[in-house]
Automatic annotation (TrEMBL):
Highest taxon in the source lineage: Bacteria
Signal sequence residues: 1-30
PROSITE patterns in UniProt: TAT
Domain spans labelled Ig-like SoxY: 47-150
Keyword annotations of the record: Signal
Annotated InterPro entries: SoxY, SoxY_sf, Sulphur_oxidation_SoxY, TAT_signal
Record's protein name: Thiosulfate oxidation carrier protein SoxY
Length: 152
């Protein structure tokens, strides 16, 4: 009879083997784009994803508060009705790292995402939809922060 303790030991052993074989880090870093997350401007982020110059579109929606009382947790919703979208991005122009979130979209995923961002100061926030032909469409909103979140 297997006890719970034995099952936990076996599970930890298997996880250790997988980690030693390098299985977990490759999976975790497969979609990581360090250039995009290190970018300091909206255009640099889009360039890192191979997107064209962005165009404003009513088919991309961004919902965020006009005034965020606490910059540590600013709720945001991004969505689009565009067809053939492959990525949805949330960008905060004046953050130390402009790219806040990236969502991969397939035919099985509805491009409607809710997230929270950390904002250190008042800034323009962008929701960007990148299509399969690398065209970028965006919606923009200014969010005013009253209490800093990125180190304030």
């Amino acid at each position: 009879m297997t006890t719970r303790r034995d099952a936990l030991k076996q599970g930890a052993f298997v996880a250790g083997l997988l980690a030693a074989a390098g299985f977990f880090p490759r999976m975790a870093l497969a979609a990581w784009n360090a250039t995009a997350f290190d970018a300091k401007s909206v255009n640099d982020v889009l360039k890192a994803y191979g997107a064209s110059a962005p165009a404003e579109s009513k088919d991309v929606m961004l919902t965020a508060p006009d005034i965020a009382e606490n910059g540590a947790v600013v709720p945001m919703t991004v969505a689009t009705t565009l067809k053939n979208v492959k990525h949805m991005l949330v960008l905060v122009e004046k953050n130390p790292s402009t790219l806040v979130a990236k969502f991969d979209v397939t035919d099985a995923v509805e491009p409607n995402f809710v997230t929270r961002a950390k904002m250190g100061q008042s800034s323009d926030v962008y929701a960007v939809a990148i299509t399969t032909d690398n065209k970028a469409f965006f919606a923009k909103k200014e969010v005013k922060v009253t209490l800093g979140g990125c180190g304030g």
